[in-house]
Design goal:
Blueprint lengths: L9 H19 L4 E2 L1 H8 L3 H9 L11 E2 H11 L6 E6 L3 H7 L3 H4 L2 E8 L9 E2 L2 E5 L3 H8 L3 E4 L3 H14 L3 E4 L12 E4 L2 H14 L1
Parallel strand pairs: 3-4, 3-7, 4-6, 7-8, 8-9
Antiparallel strand pairs: 1-2, 5-6
Helix pairs in contact: 1-4, 2-3, 7-8
Length: about 210
């Protein structure tokens, strides 16, 4: 199997976690083989898309024989780095931030929020929420070494997002999941993924009204 991440289309990359989840479910149900049609139906796409996605990784299965569920589950766990714990930092402990602090990532996968940060003057600094310590943003360069993390979730107001992103990059963060609806300017070696709940809801409502 080859693993050429740089050549994988973004749309395919966004489906990798879906494939992993489906193969984990199939494995839990003691299903040993799954066809591209069965995988597609479980995700809600067409079989041709599944086969095209899988083709970027070489021979994952043989036509007419189906895909080995356990083998593919382990394959996607490997490329998604779900075989080891990934420490994640949270920046911004407002309503969204606190909801994420209480979301038990580690029970569903091997990602774990290990610490959170807020503005130095915020009263939350120095407290612990859901077992996770909250530090001042000015301490991030020191604390990031303790956390052994290069990944951060950003849930700060839009007008502060770029400023905080600059602090994260300077501290050594290489991956940012941003809930702030603004495009961040970061170096080429830093990956940013955006989550815009308002946009997703508007898209949902559009398709609901389309019919």
């Amino acid at each position: 199997m080859k693993n050429e991440k740089s050549s994988i289309p973004r749309a395919t990359a966004k489906r990798l976690s879906l494939y992993y989840r489906i193969f984990k479910r199939f494995n839990a149900e003691n299903i040993e083989k799954a066809s591209s049609k069965e995988i597609a139906e479980a995700i809600g796409i067409d079989a041709a898309t599944v086969r095209r996605d899988f083709s970027y990784f070489g021979e994952l299965g043989r036509r007419g024989f189906g895909y080995d569920v356990k083998k593919l589950m382990e394959f996607f766990a490997d490329i998604l780095n779900d075989n080891s714990i990934t420490n994640v930092m949270l920046v911004g402990v407002g309503n969204m931030g606190r909801a994420l602090l209480h979301y038990r990532f580690h029970e569903r996968n091997k990602m774990k929020i290990v610490m959170a940060f807020e503005a130095d003057e915020n009263p939350a600094v120095g407290t612990v929420d859901a077992g996770i310590p909250i530090y001042a943003i000015s301490e991030i360069e020191e604390k990031i070494k303790e956390a052994k993390s290069q990944t951060a979730i950003l849930t700060v107001p839009s007008n502060k997002a770029q400023e905080v992103a600059n602090i994260l990059v300077a501290a050594g963060v290489k991956g940012i999941l941003s809930f702030s609806p603004v495009n961040l300017s970061v170096p080429k070696d830093v990956v940013v993924q955006y989550v815009d709940l308002t946009s997703e809801l508007q898209t949902l409502l559009y398709f609901m009204r389309k019919d």
